[in-house]
Amino acid sequence: MNNKVLALIVLIAIPAFLILGCDQNRAKSWVENTQRFSVEAAKIADLTVSTHNGAIDITGADTSELSVSVVCKAGGRNELDAQSALDAIELVSRTTDADSYELGWKWREPRKTGWSGEVRFQVQVPAGLVINAVTHNGEIEVRDTTAACDLKTHNGRLIVDGGKDVLKAHTHNGRVEVASQATRMDVSSHNGSVTIDASKCPTLGGKIGCHNGSIKIAMGENTASDVSVCTQNGRISCDVPWRVSSSKSKNRIQGSFGEGGPSLDVQAHNGSVKIVKGKT
Q1: Model's pTM, two decimal places?
Q2: CA distances (Å), 140 to each of 31, 151, 207, 209, 212, in order?
Q3: Does the structure show a pLDDT above 60 at 9?
């Protein structure tokens, strides 16, 4: 056997070994439970919810407490092992300073080979709470809130219907859909479309970006903003009256909406940018 053939066998064998090894470590059985509890929120100004694997769903309401529903799902090599993994999931629910609260989870003990954990949070909050939400694998949805939001996920979509002041929403793999009265938005997706309904925003500034996907922004009739739009591989269209101040090329345009206002930077790499009239 010559050296080239031997090298080829080794190159094939190593990935196969890694794949089989990964399969051996994957959970074969799953169990789950649901926990519900409430927290007095009269003195809470901002809430942070974090999970590595799992979705986060937050709804604002006329209430003075946090109403929390948590679904914990654990996997193991067999049902007994999965139950041990579930028992090892510890929920975190604590005050972090005078007016901040944290919801999350951790392993009670070192995670064993073959264990997997997924924890999903559904939380009803006072509408005026500042919201911070972070997950690595899972979607985030926030509705009916009236304060700032900071939302991050790596693999999952972001849906926002609410929020004011400053809205931050970032995902790597997933689409973003926002309908908000926030006057500053910092929104992006690497792989996925971005849709912004800013029809109720009096002014709009910030940055909206997308690497692979289109961007669509609905501007209000009275929304004031100075907008810079750029796309590397795509087209720019605007169905709303605006004053174009610079048009260096079909892929780069600057203009103003309303009487002009804060700067809004809109950038797409592989995708189109479309600005349309918002709902009245």
Answers
A1: 0.88
A2: 23, 7, 20, 18, 20
A3: no
